[in-house]
Write a structure and sequence with these properties.
Two copies of one chain form a homodimer. In chain A, about 30% of the residues lie in helices and about 15% in strands. Chain A is α/β, with parallel strands linked by helices. Chains A, B: It holds the Pfam family 2-Hacid_dh_C.
């Protein structure tokens, strides 16, 4: 590759913004597209595809055959893994080490909101009512983190600062030393049974799809709290709804859902103790994502190892 | 002292609970009182007074003359320092190292509530509205902590886990090495000018009374946030109200007030971006406070140095 190799930026919004940024760094053949039609029209000769929600079937067409590297603009690549349109020789990379800070801030904001019962303080303030109460603390509680990548590691750091016990479950086991107890993929029931909080940050793969089902949820303490910032399909959503309706679980903090946007007819919106946000826990600021893309482009150009290369066998 | 020395527990509520706990540890002369009348009636021969809001003028009466040690049940002792009824020879101690965890959880809960705009997410959920937005992060922000005792140190630990810059102001300077920049008591204006968040945990003394006045507040960035979990009188409350009314400061998170309970007529209740809680950020659970009292009793009995002895000259 050289700076004249053709790069396409595809994302439903702001593609041109990133294209501009890359052009300013000296790349001379950069195009942007925001719709499938535009993508098809401009795809010819593209070597590098930086994309979010790209219409992957286009890669089977003659115009798509020159793509050698697909850089996802997000952390999760389950959509790319499910696709059968990406030839084996194409390198796939994702964004890593960008979301740990923001996503763990989201997690602790929501947990503290629940445990400190800030809603109660807000209501009291509206009534000008002075009624102190004792809040529950994170200190001393046990958080179980499923997924010990760069996001999990930031969550561990914060949990330690809150004097929590930290258990972890991961498929590779390579970060086992960071947690007080480590569990493998066959040990979900043991993993969850003593947790006060279960935090899901796993990638979605064939192995993790609906891994948190009724049995796992019922094995959790009735007072435990579920937090999902990974992917909606990690949880069997219908079974979660059933379990919540029985009064099991203290809270479910959900940023991701099986179908997004979450349908207006989903009972989750109105179930007590369910806290819903619209897949926003891991925002990429344009500046940081732009820097990340440029840095990976430089690596590609120099033949250095890319950041966040996906192991297509493992699925993440 | 021996286990037969007379101990009085005085607190408007739950005095008998602590008295019981101490009796169970083998102390044979323990009484409790919850009203000034009861205190006066039972005070005779008391050597150790463990108290919260005790009617201090009783110490000037003959029945109060045997008191040698006053253990406060809280962290702040400004009421004891203001009193002229406590003879110089009486040892005063306060509770230390108990509140850092809970109070710093309060601080981060409230800050994250503001910066993550959880109120907005709550409103959106009620409307079943899926509208992602980018939240502001603590990461990269600068927090200035005024007061670097055991509570300040826990706040520092958490701020570090959130990847914040940490400045500190303290009177002794002995914890200066824990912060990125340290300021002394004559450097308030320099201290506050670059802060995103000013956290007040100072004890109330003649030196710190109304130290955060209009000038200090106006020297802060208009987008900065004030958090007071120390004492209400650290802040000139009327001046804070004036400053907030001009739109200066992004938020004021207040757990303590000049007069408590906060009067229903205070404008603070209704000012936008003011978050009020009723002096509850540092709750002592009965268990932990009980253990602390027993541990200090053992030290007293053995002639060991007490925890939390107050330097009456410094005022804390």
């Amino acid at each position: 590759m050289n700076k004249a190799s053709k790069i396409m930026i595809y994302t439903p919004s702001e593609a041109e913004l990133y294209a501009d940024l890359i052009r300013k760094d000296g790349y001379t053949s950069v195009c942007s597209a925001s719709t499938p039609e535009e993508a098809e029209e401009k795809l010819q000769d593209t070597e590098i595809l930086m994309q979010w929600k790209f219409p992957l079937h286009l890669l089977e067409k003659p115009a798509g055959k020159s793509v050698k590297w697909i850089q996802s603009l997000g952390a999760g690549v389950d959509d790319l893994m499910r696709s059968t349109s990406i030839p084996e020789g194409v390198t796939i990379s994702r964004v890593v080490d960008q979301f740990g800070g923001p996503m763990s801030e989201y997690v602790f904001a929501q947990l503290l909101y629940v445990y400190q019962d800030i809603a109660r303080s807000q209501v009291a303030q509206k009534k000008k009512s002075w009624q102190p109460f004792v809040t529950e603390l994170l200190q001393g509680k046990t958080i179980g983190i499923a997924g010990l990548g760069s996001i999990g590691k930031e969550a561990i750091r914060k949990a330690r600062a809150f004097n929590m016990k930290v258990y972890g479950l991961s498929y590779s086991g390579k970060e086992a030393h960071l947690v007080d107890r480590h569990y493998g993929p066959d040990e979900w029931m043991d993993f969850v049974k003593d947790l006060d909080i279960l935090l899901l940050i796993l990638p979605l793969t064939e192995q993790t799809r609906h891994i948190v089902n009724r049995d796992v949820l019922m094995a959790m303490k009735p007072t435990a709290c579920l937090v999902n910032i990974g992917r909606g399909h990690l949880v069997a959503e219908d079974e979660l709804i059933d379990v919540l309706r029985t009064g099991h679980l203290r809270a479910a903090i959900l940023d991701v859902f099986q179908q997004e946007p979450l349908s207006e007819t989903s009972p989750l919106w109105e179930l007590p103790n369910v806290y819903i946000t619209p897949h926003m826990s891991g925002p990429s600021t344009k500046e940081r994502l732009g820097q990340y893309l440029l840095s990976n482009l430089t690596r590609y150009q120099n033949g250095d190892a890319l950041l966040g290369v996906v192991n297509r066998k493992a699925g993440y």
